[in-house]
Amino acid sequence: MTMLPMHEERETIELQQKLARVQSLLEASRQVHSTIRLDEVLESVLEIATKELEAHGAFFSASEVLRDVKQTVYGKVPDDWTRWTESDEPPGYASAPLTGQRGEVLTHLVVYRTEPLRLEELDFLEGLALQSALAVGNAQHHERTLEWERVKIDLDAARAIQRSLLPQSTPNIEGYSLAFRSITCYEVGGDYVDMLPLPDGRLMIVLADVAGKGLASALMSMSFRSAFRAMAGTGLPLAEMAERMNTLHWMEGQEARRRYVTAVIGCLNPVDNLIEIVNAGHNPAFLCADGKPSVMIGASGPPLGMLPGRTYASETYLIEPGTRFLLYTDGLTEVFHKDEEFGEERLLGLVEMETGGASSTFLDKVWRTLTQFADTPRQSDDMTALSIIRDRDACTGPPTGSVVRANGKNEGGA
User: Fold this and answer.
1) Residue 220: CATH number of its domain
2) Using CB atoms within 10 A of its CB, is residue 119 exposed (0-12), middle (13-18) or buried (19+)?
3) For labelling, which of 103, 160, 235, 405 has a CA lying 20 to 30 Å from the CA of 84?
4) Which residues form the domain of 327?
5) Is the pTM of this model over 0.90?
C-alpha cells in the first residue's frame, strides 16, 4: 500500500470533511424544504443545526416572523439565552441571519455550544440559514395564500348574505313600475336599498350610502337596515324617523360616526298618488313629469350619524301619470371618462328623456349609458338606483300640484 505524504493526507481528509459538510447541507436543505408549514420548517432547522454542529441547543432570535410560532428553542440553552448578543466569550453563541427578499433580517439562527465553531461549521450555519430563509418565505407565502382563501370564503358568504337582505322582488302596485339595481364595487358594499309595503297599502322606500366602501361599510349598512325596518311600520313621520336614526347612529360611537350614512327615505301612497321624501345629506332625488320643470329634491339636513341633534324636513309631491322618480347613489354620477365626470346633469337628462316605460328597462338604459361613458371597465364605487315610474295611461288622482312639508310638520298628503 502506497502511503500519501502527510500534507496530502491532511488535504484529502479536509476535502472529505468539506464534501461531507456539503452533503450534509444538501440533505439539510432537502429536509427544510420538505414542508410548507412555518412551525415545521423552523423546528426542522433548529434540530438540524443542533445535531450537525454537535451543539447543546439552538434557537431563533425574537422576531415578528415568529410571533405565532410555538417552538423557537431546541435542545439545552442557558436560562439567559434571550440575551445571547451580550455574550462574546466561550462557551458562547454563533449566529447567522435569515434575510428576506428585500434584504431585511427576518430573524437570527443561533447555536449554543461549549467549543467555538470552526470555519467550515460557520459556513454550514450560514448555508443553513440561507436555505431556511427561502423555506420560511415559501411557508409564509403558503400561509398568506391559505388566509386569503379563508377570507375569500368569508367574503363570498358575506356577499351572499348581503344580497339576500336586498328586496327579493319588487312590489306589484297597480299603475306603477318599480325596479332597483345594486352592484357593489368589492365583494360587499355600503349601499342599501329597500322597499317595505305597509298594512295600509303605502310603500316605504329607502336608498342609503354608507361612507367608504368594503366590509366596514357593509356592516354599517346592515345596522342601518335594522334601524329602518324597526321604525318603518311605527307610523312615525318621516322627518322624525330620520332624526331618530341620526341619533341612534351617532350614539354608536366614533367608528360609526366615521361611517355616516347619506339616505333618502320615502313613502309612496299609490291611492292618492303622493310621495313623501326626506333627504338626509344624499344626492338629490329626481322627479320628472311631462310638460313640467324637473324637480331635484335636495338634502334638508346632514348625513345620518355625522352630527347629533339635527332635524330634517320632508317634502310631498304628486305623482302624475308618466312621472319618473329616481333615487341613486353617487357611484352613478361619479363615473369618469378621463377627467370628465358623468355628473348629475347627464343622469337627470336620462330621466327627462324617458318615455314612461318600465323601470327595469330604464335602469338597463342607465347602466348601458354609464358603461359606454366610462373609460375603464373597472367599477370604482358601489352603484345603486331605485326607479319608480307611473304609467302614462293611469287615472289622475284627486290631488293637484305639490304639497311641501317644512320642519317635519305634516301639511297633508301621505
Assistant:
1) 3.60.40.10
2) exposed
3) 103
4) 170-404
5) no
CB 301 within 8 A of CB 312: yes
Residue 205 binned pLDDT confidence (cut-offs 50, 70, 90): very high
Q: List the CATH number of the domain containing 150.
A: 3.30.450.40
Average pLDDT, the chain: 85
What is the number of structural domains in the chain? 2
Judge whether 161 lies within some domain. no
Instruction: Please report, for residues 198, 314, 315, 414, the alpha-carbon distance to residue 271 in angstroms, rounded to integers and kept in the order given.
Output: 13, 19, 18, 9
- DSSP strand pairing (57-60 vs 73-75): antiparallel
Q: How far apart are CA 362 and CA 374, in angstroms?
A: 19
CA distance 36 to 136: 8
Residue 390's nearest CA partner among 353, 338, 337, 354 is 354
- 83 belongs to a structural domain: no
Per residue in 351-368, pLDDT (tens digit) is 999 887 899 999 999 999
pLDDT in tens, 360-391: 999 999 999 999 999 887 777 889 999 999 99
| Residue whose cell numbers read 318621516 | 238
Q: Are residue 232 and residue 141 in the same domain, yes or no?
A: no
The pLDDT-based confidence of 178 (bands split at 50, 70, 90) is very high
For residues 190 and 116, state if they share a domain. no
User: 139-149 burial, b for 16+ CB within 10 Å, e for fewer?
Assistant: bbeeeeeeeee
